Amino acid sequence: MQEVLKVIKPSTAEQVKVKKVINTFIKKLDSKLSNAKSILGGSGAKDTWLSGNHDIDIFVQYDFKKYKDQSSELSDLLKQSLKKAFPKIKFNTIHGSRDYFQFIYETYHFEVVPIIKITKSKQALNITDISPLHALWVNKHTKKLKDDIRLAKQFCRANDLYGAESYISGFSGYVLEILVANFGSFNKFLKAIIHMRLNEVIDFEKYYHKKDVFFELNKSKLNSAIIVIDPVDKSRNAAAALSQEKFMLLKKVARKYLDNPTEEFYEKKEISFAKLNKKTKRNLVFITIEASSGKEDVIGMRLLKAFNFLKKELAPFEVKKFGWDWDQQKKAVFYFILKQLRLPDVEDRQGPPLKMENAVKAFKKKNKDTFEKHGRIFSIDKVEFPELEKFVKNLLKDKYFKEKVSKVKDLKVV
């Protein structure tokens, strides 16, 4: 897939430009740090990043001996240093087990995380402390596999399989790096996935003997579709976030790709009203949402809950196809393709069994039009919103839905 790599692999010029920005940033920040040092993390440190993806992770390593008993204070220390190094920059504080910081610097999105400098995973006081060890491991075991990893990442991105966030429940970059290293190439990884069973264990460093992992690891860490033992921390399942749904989807897409490997599998398909309307012609609901601000995982889960609420409530119209997308910033889109545009004006609502005499009396008292069928009492109720557009507009006013989104920017029903 050399043509794909030409698009997704950063050019020399892009690498030089990004590296220059990172080096300047680190130099400025380091000048305001005490007993700490900034390092590049994430895919940038592993040289597995994709062209155009300028989300830069910086880890600020604080001296282990000096700060091991002050782990909770690292975020405040880093915040002070950031303010001194970049007084004109506005940054967002992302709250977590240790707060970290996000902001734009030289048009690039930076995420700066305070950690304790460790040499072994057992020294970690926080899960993020292990991150630099991940980069060291990946660089040691994937020297000739960087492009295979890029292909794996882009393949998963294009097919909505990439990301360990709870609203995605897919494959993290690190898990893909481990899997490609384990199987030896991108293609071998896909072939292995097709034949992989649920709960299969990938243990690159062979920490465990056969099924021992199911007895030695905490059960809460074994709920994912597959178990990928973290090569630098044998107590951790790196794929803990992977859902069965996303695992099965990868198997399906991988099989199609290996049968007919084309560049289309690497292209993210944009969800747009124009494309969907051209294809369906009718019975389409398309909603443009403005997302709230905050931590990506939290906002993503809110959007997912809002989407699932609409999908469930639209069930009477028989949802045939559905989907959603979010640009990780402000814009999200939901779509639903339905079997019908209108419900009957009345519906039968089931009541209690006839043998429950008191309940039946109460039901009849509450409802004017009733009838008996199959040993139960039913009422004939007027459908409040039989027309699809009015039905959807009413749903968008629901308190539960409104709590999950900032606002609805546009609604199209055709």
Describe this structure in words.
- With 414 residues, the chain is of the alpha+beta class.
- It folds into four domains: 2-128, Beta Polymerase, domain 2; 142-266, Poly(a)-polymerase, middle domain (Orthogonal Bundle), CATH 1.10.1410; 273-342 and 386-413, Alpha-Beta Plaits (2-Layer Sandwich), CATH 3.30.70; 346-382, Alpha-Beta Plaits (2-Layer Sandwich).
- It is 39% helix and 22% strand.
- It contains 16 helices and 15 strands.
- The strands form four sheets. The chain has a five-stranded mixed sheet with strand order 1-2-5-4-3. A four-stranded antiparallel sheet has the order 10-11-9-15, with helices on both faces. It has a three-stranded mixed sheet with strand order 6-7-8.
- α7 packs across α8 (173-183), α8 (173-183) packs across α9 and α9 packs across α11 (244-259).
- It is globular and about 80 Å long.
- The mean pLDDT is 94.
Would you kindly provide a brief summary of this structure?
39% of the residues lie in helices and 22% in strands. The chain is α+β, with helices and mostly antiparallel strands and 414 residues long.
